[in-house]
């Protein structure tokens, strides 16, 4: 049994111009899917997005974040995961109507797009949009890398259960940039080896054991793992900021009608409540309020 099931490993092949990543998710995945009691089909989709976002976030060479979003006209109108360079992740989905049982990407999302938004803390934001033409999320992401970076990239994304708990895991292989010659045969060799991975191995074995099983005949340099965690940015202060965007009279009227104002975070399920006293206190201390000025 794994000692920590929320880790991302980066590794390099000593004899090939190829790098790899392996991610295993347990608590982070459970936190996201249990926050809203999502149906199984939506849980699986969010798990795939979670794996993908973690793997993509690990490719960042700067401090910032990546948002991976599926949007379309199908039963699942929106599914999105956001992660940053510290591997702090959160996600949410919007769905309505009957969900198809086949679990296929197009059946769930319909005619739609995969939108990848990269937001550096310093510098300009970049956004890539990919039509959902491939049968799987992994296939769509491979198209993204082929278009945006022209680097051979292969992903394996798995979701399921291990010891009664939902699990998500994945592997990424990618050619290193600035190739001086054609290394396609090396990449195909590693791709064939990686394709032998089984779900139960990804979900139940330590990362080092997985890498040994896959590549024991090749020299692999494995770097220290990076911990992954669920992190939501919601807070009572953020909710107060949102309330201050409306007029005080409107907020007071809402409290008079409903008894209180309830604010719910779709990412983590947290509830924030504001009664009449809270509203009076909030607006009285707001910047620019006459009650805060000295006379």
Automatic annotation (TrEMBL):
InterPro entries xref list: Heat_shock_Hsp33, Heat_shock_Hsp33_C, Heat_shock_Hsp33_N, Hsp33_helix_hairpin_bin_dom_sf
Where in the cell does this protein reside? Cytoplasm
Alphabetically sorted, this entry's keywords are: Chaperone, Cytoplasm, Disulfide bond, Redox-active center, Zinc
- Keyword Chaperone annotated: yes
- A GO CC term attached to the entry: cytoplasm
Mainly localized where?
Answer: cytoplasm
Specify the taxonomic lineage. Answer: Bacteria, Pseudomonadati, Pseudomonadota, Gammaproteobacteria, Aeromonadales
UniProt similarity note:
Belongs to the HSP33 family.
Q: How is it modified after translation?
A: Under oxidizing conditions two disulfide bonds are formed involving the reactive cysteines. Under reducing conditions zinc is bound to the reactive cysteines and the protein is inactive.
Cited Gene3D superfamilies = helix hairpin bin (1.10.287.480), Hsp33 domain (3.55.30.10), HSP33 redox switch-like (3.90.1280.10)
On whether Cell division is a keyword of this UniProt record, the answer is no
Q: What is this protein called?
A: 33 kDa chaperonin
GO MF annotations in UniProt: protein folding chaperone; unfolded protein binding
Q: Which PANTHER family match?
A: 33 KDA CHAPERONIN
Enumerate the Gene Ontology biological process terms.
protein refolding
Q: Which cysteines are joined by disulfide bonds?
A: 232-234, 265-268
Quote the function comment for this protein: Redox regulated molecular chaperone. Protects both thermally unfolding and oxidatively damaged proteins from irreversible aggregation. Plays an important role in the bacterial defense system toward oxidative stress.
Naturally occurring in which organism (per UniProt) = Aeromonas lusitana
Q: What Pfam family does this protein match (any one)? A: HSP33
């Amino acid at each position: 049994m794994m000692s920590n099931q929320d880790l991302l490993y980066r590794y390099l092949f000593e004899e090939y111009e190829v790098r790899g990543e392996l991610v295993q998710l347990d608590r982070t995945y459970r936190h996201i899917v249990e926050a809203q009691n999502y149906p199984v089909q939506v849980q699986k989709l969010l798990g795939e997005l979670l794996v993908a976002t973690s793997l993509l976030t690990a490719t960042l060479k700067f401090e910032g974040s990546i948002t991976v979003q599926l949007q379309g006209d199908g039963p699942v109108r929106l599914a999105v995961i956001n992660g940053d360079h510290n591997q702090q992740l959160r996600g949410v989905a919007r769905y309505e109507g009957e969900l198809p049982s086949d679990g296929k990407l197009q059946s769930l999302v319909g005619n739609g797009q995969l939108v990848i938004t990269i937001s550096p803390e310093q510098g300009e934001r970049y956004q890539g949009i990919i039509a959902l033409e491939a049968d799987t999320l992994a296939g769509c992401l491979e198209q993204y890398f082929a278009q945006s970076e022209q680097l051979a990239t292969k992903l394996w994304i798995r979701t399921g259960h291990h010891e009664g708990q939902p699990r998500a895991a994945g592997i990424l292989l990618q050619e290193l940039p600035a190739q001086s010659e054609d290394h396609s045969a090396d990449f195909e060799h590693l791709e064939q080896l990686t394709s032998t991975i089984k779900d139960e191995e990804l979900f139940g074995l330590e990362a080092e054991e997985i890498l040994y099983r896959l590549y024991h005949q090749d020299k692999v340099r494995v770097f220290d793992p990076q911990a992954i965690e669920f992190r939501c940015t919601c807070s009572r202060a953020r909710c107060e900021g949102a309330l201050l965007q409306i007029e005080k009279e409107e907020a007071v009227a809402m409290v008079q009608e409903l008894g209180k104002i309830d604010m719910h975070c779709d990412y983590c399920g947290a509830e924030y409540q504001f009664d009449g006293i809270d509203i009076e206190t909030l607006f009285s201390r707001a910047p620019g309020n006459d009650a805060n000025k000295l006379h």
